[in-house]
Amino acid sequence: MGLFDRFRRPSPGSAGPAAVRARLEGAMAKRRLRGWNPPLENINALVASGGPRLLARSRELVVTNGYAANACEAFASNLVGDGIKPSSLIEDAAVRDYVQRLWLAWTDEADADGLTDFYGLQAMVAREMFVAGECFVRLRPRRAEDGLMVPLQLQLLQSEMLPFEKTEVLPSGSRIRCGIEFDSIGRRVAYHFRRRHPGDSTDQGGRVIGDVIPETVRVPAADVLHIYRPIDAGQIRGLPHVAPAMVRLFLLDQYDDAELDRKKTAAMFAGFITKTAPEEPMLGEVEADLNGAAIASLEPGTMQVLLPGEDVKFSAPADVGGGYEAFQYRTLLAVSASLGLPYHLVTGDVRQANYSSLRAELVEFRRRIGQLQHGVIVHQLCRAVWRRWLEAAALSGALGLDDPAAARPVQWIPPRWDWVDPLKDIQAQVLAMGAGITSRRKVVEATGYDIEEVDRENAADAARAAALGLSYRTGSGETQGARATPATQPDPGDGAREHEHGDAAATESATEQE
Question: What ranges does the record list as Basic and acidic residues composition bias (predicted)?
Answer without folding.
Answer: 494-503
